[in-house]
Amino acid sequence: GELLGCVSGELGLRKFVEARGHELIVTSDKDGEGCEMERHLPEAEVVISQPFWPFYLTRGRMEMAPRLRMALTAGIGSDHVDLQAAMERRVDVAEVTYCNSESVAEHVVMMILALVRNYIPSHDQVLRGGWNIADCVSRAYDVEGMHVGTVAAGRIGLSVLKRLQPFGCRLHYADRHRLPAEVEAKYGLTYHATAQEMVKVCDVVTINCPLHPETEHLFDAKLLATMKRGAYIVNTARGKICNRDDIAAALASGQLAGYAGDVWFPQPAPKDHPWRSMPNHGMTPHTSGTTLSAQARYAAGVREILEDLWDGRPIRTPYQIVTDGQLAGAGAHAYSKGNATDGSEEAAKFKAGK
């Protein structure tokens, strides 16, 4: 595979963009006041950002970009853009829907198994030269028979449930859009109208919904207290859907047996972020949706969107988040109006080595 999703890879866009008469500027200096990315905003017509190392396009930054036509996510999830400001300023927002859904679903199943089977401490036992079987298995269980639920059963959530069915899990989902009855029957799914209703019965909860004002800090101390003691959470959606300090406290108290994921807020996470050091976690950097396979797909999707923009063609509906000042396409289906970028300035702490 080719490493397209990095500064040197440039999403494979340079020859294409320059052949169309445009200038492509690629940088990783995107956090803090006066960063290189901010210095180019006055001339920018399109801002492309990955969700894995995002450029937080806040209202203030949009005001620096009077020529901005589009914010384009090279991946899935456009919460790093102030969608409310984009609607008001009629800046279109698009993302490459579907590009890495299967990649993330695979990652979720891997993390569920890693937590429930106590894989990470067992692996650490080997690295330390040990062979204490009792320590390895003292927190290890089978997923068979466990109640596993997803918050949102869209592209990723449903893919997770499909992968878990052969394990003999009892499967649940909560979503504002109920799945067809035949899908529920095929996979043995139990529907819950709200996440609050679902988490009470689950041994494992996987979070697969977008971040927007209605889901920000959904998993706080109040909701966590309603879960089964010793439950697990896997979050590959967005870090800010969970209250940072409440998750760490729930792990310390034993209310949660484990927490894993690859999403943080902000990103990159400051070195003093409590999720780096909390007990019984399986956190990684934001990698689930940027395998080499996924990079090829989202790079191709970015090029398609740019071609449509520059040729005056409508962008395909599933790629649309904000169009002509309104939520549209996937955005209308999954997001709500408002802004979820508050606090993103903390990402500059990582740049400063903190």
Structural account:
The chain is of the alpha/beta class and 354 residues long. It has two domains: 10-99 and 291-349, NAD(P)-binding Rossmann-like Domain (Rossmann fold, 3-Layer(aba) Sandwich), CATH 3.40.50.720; 101-283, NAD(P)-binding Rossmann-like Domain (Rossmann fold, 3-Layer(aba) Sandwich), CATH 3.40.50. Helices cover 34% and strands 14% of the residues. It has 15 helices and twelve strands. The chain has helices at residues 14-19, 36-40, 59-63, 83-89, 101-116, 119-127, 133-137, 155-164, 181-187, 195-199, 221-224, 244-253, 292-311, 329-334, 348-351; strands spanning 46-49, 70-73, 92-95, 147-151, 170-174, 189-192, 204-207, 231-235, 256-261, 281-283, 320-323, 326-327. A seven-stranded parallel beta sheet has the order 6-5-4-7-8-9-10. Strands 1-2-3-11-12 form a five-stranded mixed beta sheet, with helices on both faces. α5 packs across α8. The longest helix has 20 residues, at 292-311. The model has no long low-confidence stretch (mean pLDDT 96).
Class of the largest domain in CATH? Alpha Beta
The CATH architecture designation of the largest domain is 3-Layer(aba) Sandwich
Into which percent range does the helicity of residues fall? 25-40%
β-strand percent reads 5-15%
What is the CATH topology descriptor of the largest domain?
Answer: Rossmann fold
Poorly predicted ranges: none
Fourth-tier CATH superfamily name of the largest domain: NAD(P)-binding Rossmann-like Domain
Largest β sheet strand count, sense and barrel closure: 7 strands, parallel
